[in-house]
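User: I've been going back and forth on whether these two constructs are worth ordering. Before I decide, could you fold them both?

Assistant: Sure. I'll take them in the order you sent them. The first construct and its structure tokens:
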Amino acid sequence: MSKNVLVLADVRDGELRNVSLESLAAATRVADGGAVTAAVFGSKAKDVVEELSHHGADKVVLVLDEKLDQYTTDAYFQAFKQVIEHVEPDVIFTGHTAIGRDVSPRVAARLGCGLVSDCTDVEVDDSQIVFTRPIYAGKAFVKKAFREGTVFATLRPNNIPALEADTSRSAVVEELEVQFAEDLLRTVVKDVVRKASEGVDLSEARVIVSGGRGVKSADGFKPLQELADVLGGAVGASRGACDAEYCDYALQIGQTGKVVTPDLYIACGISGAIQHLAGMSNSKVIVAINKDPEANIFSVADYGIVGDLFEVVPMLTEEFKKVLVESK
């Protein structure tokens, strides 16, 4: 049975995040011939209409209000709720990002709908939607079937491949004016100060080079950054490195940090505490570099290198440079 699916597009600094395109792919799979609608908030929402169209959106609803240029819970809650009431979808997808994790449960609770969070796969089986999500810090997976009513789902980045861009597609565009209850807009964003380094978004990076206490200092992250730059990836860290003030907590990966699923995860000087493994153990390929051959990180690694990261990482960087030069 075909379904109408709504995707809340996640836009940062005027650019569409990859998880929004992945959500459109999941929406197309679930719609089964029904309409796929994307909602975009903010005064510059028109800038991403074409990209949404090319990746599966049949219709794009624009809420061109400057109150939505920066995320605030109150404004997004009111706007998202009104968009849902206008579109009347059967399924609503958001990314499992800071925005999706905050606004989806709030709106779902207000509308009396179900919510499945942190999904790594979505499929249709015998006319019902089946969501797959990790439990017990990624040690097991559970499938949840949904049969009737409206359901929200947040999708973990880097798990559902985005559709190939089809430049022949053109979505219907609609501008929707939403009404805000001003007395409920309790937060105003005056300025945004970014403490994390610029570059590839950690939660969506295909390659992550991560450091632990073994990097020994803030300067110890420099060779990791060089390797990440060569591979077009991002730098992450364990909580131990963050607690030691080697880097900012914005880079923390683990149970109390970001959960990532890159194609390649290179763990440098990380022992492999269970809290850290919860944030990266579902990476497609894991390479561990550690002087201790008994380090727990090797238990989840596909490839292990026993050695000093300050010797191994520069060697890897040089070898990758050679390979990339030869491939051009």
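The second construct, handled the same way:
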Amino acid sequence: MGKKGEETKQHIRKAAYSLFAEKGFKAVTMKDICEKSGLSRGGLYRHYPGTEEIFEEIVNGFVQKQEDEFADRIGKGIPATQILEEVLSRYKEEMNDSQASLSVAIYEYYTAAERENNALLIRYGASKRMWQRLIIYGMERGEFRRVDAEAVYDIIVFSYQGVRMYSKMMPIDEKIPERIIKQIKEMLL
């Protein structure tokens, strides 16, 4: 696919992301994405056969982007504390931004009766390995306390996703993400 085709797909994913965040996965149609992106049905279907493929690319993109970011920064020898600070700062912003949360859409997508949950487990495993690599990297450099990296990951991911999910259903006090981030830092630093 050429540069223009990839730019169009990126435009589609951006339009679809906002719809999925607003409506969840089940309520978004290809027609909605056509209207939001300004593409004709033919133009949209030239790039994606359905909402599932668009959603998969969005979710895969997030996981891959963070995985690449961690690997790149660790590979360059960036201090683990700096990487942690930057990621947790972003997580805090995301927890406070309920409008941009895909948590409900992710729940709907992966709990569909016909869908296997292996894809979700694969993503969970990739995310866990990435975070464990950062935590172990930080411990090896003497920047992080000695901790159970898997347990810390569980606290990070389930706290983050829990706040994101709840924020779609009720107002969340902005101090909640602050307290969570503070405790994660206290566990590690």
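Notes on the second construct follow. The mean pLDDT is 93. DSSP finds nine helices and no strands in the chain.
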